[in-house]
């Protein structure tokens, strides 16, 4: 990796990535020029930071996955009982996923860096599922790889739940986290 960016360069990169996420969510085929305009920068500045569209998409993938990893860390999953940790991680993840909806829900390029971040996210999730199983929250014979896949699907579905566009309260990450955890642990069957 190269030397760190100056503060102004770092701000422009952040502005480009945030603008790209917004613009591409509206129009996946948007041009670099449209992204530059949305970021309040010139096209030349955008091209100075990202040589082409592919480089920008790769940077989006890395940035979004890094923010997911940071959100997991901020939940301090190792310092709380598994159920509390699972709830915190879920709420934080939903906050990030709602901000990076385009990047995290579309096939974005997997650079080595993005793939490594995703492996780390998977490892954290599996570790948390293992703790939940050891603490009796998940069944002792639960297939944890399958449970992780279902958990990821529930996260995506929570963000795309019908009616959330009309009701801002339905987008509340804490309420959605409770819904995800309840569905993961109890399904649609009757509660005891």
TrEMBL record:
- Residues annotated as DNA-binding are 31-50
Signal peptide residue numbers: none
Give the matching InterPro entries.
Answer: Homeodomain-like_sf (IPR009057), HTH-type_TetR-like_transc_reg (IPR050109), HTH_TetR (IPR001647), Tet_transcr_reg_TetR-rel_C_sf (IPR036271)
Boundaries of every HTH tetR-type domain copy: 10-68
Query: Which SUPFAM superfamilies does this entry report, sorted A to Z?
Result: Homeodomain-like (SSF46689), Tetracyclin repressor-like, C-terminal domain (SSF48498)
Nuclease as UniProt keyword: no
Q: Which Pfam families match?
A: TetR_N
Q: Which GO terms describe its molecular function?
A: DNA-binding transcription factor activity; transcription cis-regulatory region binding
Entry keyword set: DNA-binding, Transcription, Transcription regulation
The protein depicted here goes by the name: HTH tetR-type domain-containing protein
């Amino acid at each position: 990796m190269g030397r760190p960016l100056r503060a102004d360069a770092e701000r422009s990169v952040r502005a480009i990535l945030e603008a790209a996420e917004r613009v591409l969510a509206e129009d996946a085929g948007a041009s670099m020029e449209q992204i530059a305009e949305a970021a309040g920068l010139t096209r030349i500045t955008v091209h100075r930071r990202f040589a082409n569209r592919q480089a920008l998409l790769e940077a989006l993938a890395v940035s979004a996955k890094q923010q997911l990893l940071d959100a997991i860390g901020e939940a301090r999953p190792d310092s709380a009982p598994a159920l509390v940790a699972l709830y915190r991680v879920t709420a934080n993840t939903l906050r990030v996923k709602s901000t990076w909806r385009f990047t995290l829900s579309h096939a974005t390029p997997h650079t080595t860096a993005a793939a490594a971040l995703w492996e780390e996210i998977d490892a954290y999730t599996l570790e948390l599922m293992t703790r939940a199983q050891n603490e009796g929250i998940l069944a002792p014979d639960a297939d944890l790889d399958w449970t992780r896949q279902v958990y990821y699907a529930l996260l995506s579905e929570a963000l795309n739940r019908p009616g959330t566009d009309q009701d801002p309260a339905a987008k509340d990450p804490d309420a959605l986290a409770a819904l995800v955890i309840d569905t993961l642990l109890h399904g649609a069957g009757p509660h005891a």
